[in-house]
Amino acid sequence: MTTRLELDFERPAPGEDWELPHWMLVILPERRADAGHYSGQDSLPATLLLRVAGEPVAIAEPFTYHLTNEYCYDSEYYLVLRASEIVDAAAWSALPFGHLAEGDVFAAWDRFHGYEYLRTPDSEERAMSYGGDWADLQLLVDDEHPRAAGPRPTRRVSPASLLRAVRAGDVERVRALLTRGADPNAGRDAPDAALREVSVDRNSTALWEAVLQDSPALVEALLAAGASVTAPWRDAMPPLACALVNRKLAVIPVLLAFGADPDEGFRGETARRLADKLGLSELLNAARA
Fold first, then answer.
1. Total structural domains in the chain?
2. Residues 42 and 122 occupy one common structural domain
3. Residue 156 confidence (pLDDT)
4. Are the beta carbons of 204 and 196 closer than 8 angstroms?
5. What is the pLDDT of residues 156-165, one digit of tens each?
6. Are residues 10 and 136 in the same domain?
7. Are residues 15 and 116 in the same domain?
8. With bands split at pLDDT 50, 70 and 90, how would you rate the model's confidence at 39?
9. Please, which contacts does 247-251 make with residues 24 or more away whose CB atoms are closer than 8 Å?
10. What are the Cα distances from residue 189, in Å, to 46, 80, 219, 232, 258?
11. Tens digits of per-residue pLDDT, 101-121?
12. Beta strands 4-9 and 115-118: pairing type?
């Protein structure tokens, strides 16, 4: 395995944009975007030396990931670069991702669709093809490949990170992400770039996922942080009705305690009428008492 590869950026003429080399093909010269979904293990270099006009600027670490889309039933294979050492701070700051520091992810590549992402200041919250964004990707990299100096402070929390934690049933992580500012209504508004024609929309929210796990702790954490207890969109089933239909009975008292309305309508139905049909009226009434 090659321990280090080198990549040379050409400095642009005044008024011109940076011409970025095809960094992903330097690392994986035999792996093309049209190769389809690839699940095998690649032999990656340990580091990549970035140069500008021949002068060393930074050392980067490459990683490969199989990333689940938190908004669609889909997943992608990504190649990711993280800056491990900045050799020349002035030259680094002139690069398109020069606002970043050591430990930050600065480039990613969707190897199936061929999408290339550079972490420029205006792309921080833009969704990538797997449904996450830079904040989510940074968290995943830091979790799986901790820096020797420890994790860098996260600038923001991606909704995709919260959805992943809820689906994993990780109550403590969910609470920690919410404390750091995660949106408790994650999933109500899926990013457009996460929903492609080849994918099936999950049509789910963090609260729905918590309800379907019948986890009072997850449901309470989300509702206490401000998650809406009403239906997420027009004609959608409200969380209380969702709990009744799926017989997730442990979360019903929590939903009611946070203001769930048994008479909220959806497609001509209500949770109260559903409870009658399912023989759960006594449970619903006891939980409301």
1. 2
2. yes
3. 87
4. no
5. 899 999 999 9
6. yes
7. yes
8. very low
9. 247/278, 248/211, 248/212, 248/213, 248/214, 249/214, 249/280, 249/283, 250/214, 250/215, 250/216, 251/210, 251/211, 251/214, 251/215, 251/216, 251/219
10. 38, 26, 19, 9, 22
11. 999 999 999 988 889 999 999
12. unpaired
d(CA 159, CA 191): 10
**What is the radius of gyration, based on Cα positions, of the chain?**
23
Does the pLDDT at position 36 exceed 70?
Answer: no
Report pLDDT for 58. Answer: 95
Query: Residues 141, 250: one domain?
Result: no
Query: Residue 88's pLDDT is what?
Result: 95
Contact 119, 134 (CB under 8 A): yes
Contact between 80 and 137 (Cβ < 8 Å): yes
**Domain annotation covers residue 282:** yes
Predicted confidence at residue 30, as pLDDT, reads 62
Instruction: Kindly report whether the global pTM for this prediction surpasses the value 0.85.
Output: yes
- Residue 20 to residues 55, 59, 79: CA-CA distances in angstroms? 16, 16, 16
Which pair of structure tokens corresponds to residue 47? Answer: 């580091």
Please name the helix (run of DSSP H) or strand (run of DSSP E) that holds residue 118, with its range, or none.
Answer: strand 115-118
72 neighbors 195 (Cβ within 8 angstroms): yes
Domain span holding position 212: 160-288
